[in-house]
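Support case: user asked for a sample of complex input and structure output to validate their parser. Sending the pair below.
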Amino acid sequence: MKRDRMLFLLGAALAAVIAGGPLLPQWALFILTIAFAQGLVALGLMLLLRAGLVSFGQALYYCIGAYTAGGLGRAFGVSDVFLQMIAGAAMAALVAFVLGFLLAKYRGIFFGLLSLALSMILYGLIVKSEALGSTDGLNVARSTLFGVRPAADWVRYAVAVAAAFAGLGAATLVHLFLKTPLGRLAPAIKDNEIRVEYMGASVRYAIHVQYVIAATLAGVGGALAATTVGHIDPEMAYWTTSGEFIFIAILAGTGSVLAPFLGALLFGAIHGLAYDLSPHTWQMSLGTALLLVIVFLPEGLWSLFVRRRTA
Amino acid sequence: MSTILAARGVNKNFGAITAAADINAAIELDSVVGLIGANGAGKTTFINMITGYIKPDSGGIHYEGRDITALAPREITRLGILRSFQIPQLYGSLSVHENMLTALGIMLHNAGRGGFFSLSRARQNVPGHDAPAEEVAERILERFGLMEYRNRNTQVLPGGVRKLLDIALTLAARPRVLLLDEPTSGISAEEKFGIMEMVMKAMKAEGVTVIFVEHDMEVVSRFAGRVLAFYDGRIIADGRPDAVLGDPDVRRYVVGEPHGQDERAPRA
């Protein structure tokens, strides 16, 4: 039996974050943690992309995860990173389970725009809600880990390690899921739904399950972002946020569960660099980067590694 | 012989067009039935009603004594009624082998409850087969002479091979009844008989009852044990191939022989 290289890579990445984290400056730890948060959302998008679905509204679940984490702190004084992530995931999963009955019926542009519409409804609701901080948003209490409040210098490191556990743990589960009969069904659904149905499988069920998984991952990502940034606002549900996730997913490609995190890291780097070099035209730099990826690496970042291996 | 599948008083209209008018037919276990008729006579509608894609306006479809009229296509599939397509329905981005594995994966998926809990099933025997998916896939591909195309993408396969794979995929589900919609359409005259021979042999070995739609009367008379001739949504003749193909109405309305030239043999 061939050993699974991916599980080894995921383990190595986790070890690298734990061992290398203390050497990194605070800003780098911040970028790394946000990359894990966004990578989680992109990982979910990757699942949907494999089935031929593009969600323009993953920010919905990112925002739900973030506000659940923030709300948990404000209402119950819970600031534990893991509890926040679990709550964010649960709330996102619950909402996705309900909305999934509707969305699993749609394909193509209809699926995309319906998901976008739902995220914009949440955006509108939060903006109009004083209790949720309206456009100003809310502050999130400083993170704790298993009841311990790390020293100020170590908070970023602690959260980054927690993010690595969550992100790479999720990547491991998704990696295993892709080997299940249900996980393997996605490319078949993308290719030919008629055949899938006439072999006795329910396409809607398969899409519903993957939609809920994608939302759950986005919920974890949102909670992580909330505790990392220390602030949540309705922009997290705005369509441009969804656009960033699609950007990362395309950057990454669907070749590997590790790719979304690398994609998110690269996105963070391009974003940061572009902003530093030219604060007024950073969107143009991002756009150019995406253009280059689509033209030269249509299968995404991961194809760089795959090509080298087969060469 | 016992009846495995029956249509009882089935009617279906699409607006002013009658696609099925009081169709009654009992299909016997292990039989090979050919459906003939001009385009629009109601053959494909008949197949679509059996597989649940189209619901009859009245009447019912019964499978092993059970009324399956209201079931969804995938539920009917799970009962053992499979179909192939006039235009092969394959997974275009996958190889021949992956197409077969996906079909077998669906059997595993249907047997489990999906998700993570079916992970361990990937190495288990495929339901209805006595081996894991990899092994069953090789066996079926071998049986249909598809091994040489194993790793080829299905989009670049010749038409005949695509047709064969389309039919071979159904074997993953261990069908009890197989409906073939024009299995030899678009296939060259030289290949037709070879392909039908291979398919029929495989289905006979598996004990599958076969119903096939066919326009080539030579193929029909060679492979069908019984023929149903459709015209205008009705069955106008039902019986042994020689009897049905010799029927004056069939020769006139189905085979397309000009009126008044009944003495000529049916056109092949």
